């Protein structure tokens, strides 16, 4: 391989090479009988949803997820009694032949963390609310005065006490920063940004390093896939700069359920696995926890045994920013590129000729003015292209539409570059058959940028997969990574074994999960845990049924206030558990109706939305 990025451009990168796939080298962490990081495989974990004090129910749910393939399981421990119950749960599991590691999930209560550290193999603490509840509750007050050094000293005192217990009992630790629950102190300086998430974790990691405690895993979770990906990348760059090599726990929090939850998780987790980041994975779905396991396994296996592409020449990465969204510039051609929304292109090349019924099967009739339908923007066929407009169907032949299929080799060809320089009316459709297609397609976009070419570019990937659920995850991981980096004027998923209508719907869902185009209501829903005080899965479905006619809204459905108000901060409306049988409704970040009886809360939510439409 001849390509090597310029060293001065890679000093602050999160990976050693943007175009070579390799697992990030980390320190090895021991969690009971499981080893994470180092040369170990990516581990699969989940979190149970039962109240911890219901010991039998929690034991049974742990058994269910272990039988489904989880290698570790997390259990909430909001208080000391819950932390003590973890020891009983662990013993009952061991008596039943299940010696998998247990993880205690801690918020607000360092004393519960210390108790749990004596009873389970791993503790997860949130740096945003580790020391006290007030630290998180002040996040909305950015004008608070903080004594930075004094607050750090207080934090360190409590944290070192926990580390000493972890050393004594051989307990591992996860520093789990969460976009929705940064401390008021961090918020006052950084806001709710990826940089704030990173600094929140780094404060704790520096203490761990100073205390010579390396049995640590770290995570940067958010429901916003862009924030999540940028935060992990920034974290790795920050750790590299300080000679830290802690393993990474990957996850998109509050992903929701069904297709959208899976696709959103695949976009965020896949973008990181594609660059060799990640040592353990949890897919957070608002479903029974055993449903998370096959999704996580599919994603992890998809990125195993990757082969590297052989790039033809050196790629200039000057100006590429992997830590914030910047859409790559293009000019518009036939409604593609420029300021137009990222387009969805349907591959009908396996249908030749294409009949009117084929078009109607996609949910669109020529001459229809049904503007409520979610329509594909553009359809490529073997002999023609079909451009959908809102009120008509325009057929363009290849010469008029100027579709040019190409790949990395052609983009690097000097003659092709000269031809393209004088043919600004061409739409490029770039594809890669390489296993590490993301790296090769990234190279295409950066090469195009370096050449000063602004033709709109469609990303194309071809799949032989016949299982639609697996295809959803594979395509979301592939396309999401590139879309988050600002690449692509459109996407085209080619999968001849899957109905085109399903592919079109999947394409729009990927665009929304990648936060580049919204065409439906987005539900930011937590996966539920022992802190949740209502049936979140049923409630989420009831809210979906009641709000399905609203377009392009973001609605948060949260079980409690731990991460809820913060994690749904960019939602238009929020439905948050406030206590037993009580719900608080939010407009943006502000609570507008407090402590509503749960039986009335959905009706009140609909009234609130309708009053502002």
Could you give me the name of the CATH homologous superfamily of the largest domain? Answer: Dihydropteroate synthase-like
Distance, first to last CA: 56 Å
Low-confidence stretches: 1-10, 135-141, 366-373, 389-393, 395-399
DSSP strand content? 15-25%
**Structural domain count:** 3
pLDDT average, as an integer?
Answer: 85
Strand numbers in spatial order across the main sheet:
8-7-6-5-4-3-10-9
What is the class of the largest domain in the CATH system? Alpha Beta
Q: What would you call the shape?
A: globular
**Helical percent range?**
25-40%
Named CATH topology of the largest domain: TIM Barrel
Evaluate the radius of gyration.
25 Å
* Biggest beta sheet summary: 8 strands, parallel
Question: How large is the count of helical segments?
Answer: 21
Q: What's the count of strands?
A: 23
| CATH architecture descriptor name of the largest domain | Alpha-Beta Barrel
Overall description:
It is a single chain. This protein has 613 residues and is of the alpha/beta class. The chain folds into 3 domains: 282 residues, Alpha-Beta Barrel (TIM Barrel); 171 residues; 89 residues, Sulfite Reductase Hemoprotein, domain 1 (2-Layer Sandwich). The protein has 21 helices and 23 strands. The strands form 4 sheets. Strands 8-7-6-5-4-3-10-9 form an 8-stranded parallel β-sheet. The protein has an 8-stranded mixed β-sheet with strand order 14-13-12-11-18-17-16-15. A 5-stranded mixed β-sheet has the order 19-20-21-22-23. Helix 2 links the parallel strand 3 and strand 4. Helix 16 packs parallel to helix 17 and helix 17 packs parallel to helix 18. The relative contact order is 0.11.
């Amino acid at each position: 391989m001849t390509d090597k990025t310029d060293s001065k451009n890679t000093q602050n990168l999160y990976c050693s090479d943007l175009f070579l796939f390799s697992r990030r080298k980390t320190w090895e962490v021991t969690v009971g009988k499981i080893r994470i990081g180092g040369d170990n495989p990516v581990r699969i974990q989940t979190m149970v949803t039962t109240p911890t004090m219901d010991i039998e129910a929690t034991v049974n749910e742990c058994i269910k997820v272990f039988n489904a393939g989880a290698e570790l399981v997390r259990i909430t421990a909001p208080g000391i009694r819950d932390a003590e119950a973890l020891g009983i749960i662990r013993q009952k599991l061991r008596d039943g032949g299940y010696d998998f590691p247990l993880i205690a999930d801690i918020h607000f209560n360092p004393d519960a963390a210390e108790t749990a550290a004596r009873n389970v193999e791993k503790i997860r603490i949130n740096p945003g609310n580790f020391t006290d509840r007030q630290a998180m509750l002040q996040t909305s007050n950015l004008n608070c005065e903080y004594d930075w050094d004094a607050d750090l000293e207080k934090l360190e005192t409590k944290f070192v006490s926990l580390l000493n217990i972890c050393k004594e009992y051989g307990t591992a630790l996860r520093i789990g920063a969460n976009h929705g629950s940064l401390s008021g102190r961090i918020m006052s300086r950084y806001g709710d940004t990826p940089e704030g998430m990173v600094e929140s974790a780094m404060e704790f990691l520096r203490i761990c390093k100073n205390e010579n405690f390396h049995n640590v895993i770290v995570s940067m979770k958010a429901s916003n896939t862009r924030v999540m990906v940028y935060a992990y990348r920034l974290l790795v760059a920050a750790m590299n700069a300080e000679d830290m090599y802690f393993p990474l726990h990957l996850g998109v929090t509050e992903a929701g359920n069904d297709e959208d939850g899976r696709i959103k998780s695949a976009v965020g987790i896949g973008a990181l696995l594609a660059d060799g980041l990640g040592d353990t994975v949890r897919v957070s779905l608002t479903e029974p926890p055993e449903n998370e396991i096959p999704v996580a396994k599919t994603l992890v296996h998809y990125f195993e045994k990757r082969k590297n592409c052989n790039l033809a020449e050196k790629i200039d990465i000057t100006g590429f920013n992997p830590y914030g969204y910047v859409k790559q510039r293009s000019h518009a051609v036939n409604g593609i590129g420029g300021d137009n929304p990222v387009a969805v292109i349907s591959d009908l090349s396996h249908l030749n000729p294409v009949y009117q019924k084929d078009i109607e099967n996609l949910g669109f009739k020529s001459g229809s003015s049904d503007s409520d339908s979610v329509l594909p923007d553009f359809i490529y066929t073997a002999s023609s292209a079909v451009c959908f407009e809102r009120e008509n169907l325009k057929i363009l032949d290849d010469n008029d539409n100027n579709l040019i299929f190409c790949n990395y080799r052609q983009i690097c060809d000097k003659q092709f570059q000269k031809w393209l320089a004088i043919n600004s009316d061409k739409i490029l459709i770039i594809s890669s058959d390489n296993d590490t297609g993301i790296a090769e397609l990234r190279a295409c976009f950066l090469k195009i940028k370096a050449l000063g070419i602004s033709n709109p570019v469609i990303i194309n990937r071809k799949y032989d997969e016949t299982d639609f659920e697996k295809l959803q995850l594979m395509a979301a991981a592939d396309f999401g990574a590139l879309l988050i980096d600002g690449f692509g004027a459109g996407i085209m998923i080619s999968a001849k074994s899957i109905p085109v209508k399903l592919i079109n719907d999947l394409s729009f869902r990927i665009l929304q999960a990648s936060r580049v185009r919204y065409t439906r209501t987005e539900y930011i829903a937590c996966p539920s845990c022992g802190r949740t005080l209502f049936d979140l899965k049923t409630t989420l479905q009831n809210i979906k049924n009641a709000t399905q006619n609203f377009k392009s809204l973001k609605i948060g459905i949260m079980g409690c206030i731990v991460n809820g108000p913060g994690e749904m901060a960019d939602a238009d409306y929020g439905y948050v558990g406030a206590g037993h049988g009580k719900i608080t409704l939010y407009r943006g970040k502000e609570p507008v109706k407090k402590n509503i009886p749960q039986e009335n809360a959905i009706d009140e939510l609909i009234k609130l939305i309708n009053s502002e439409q």
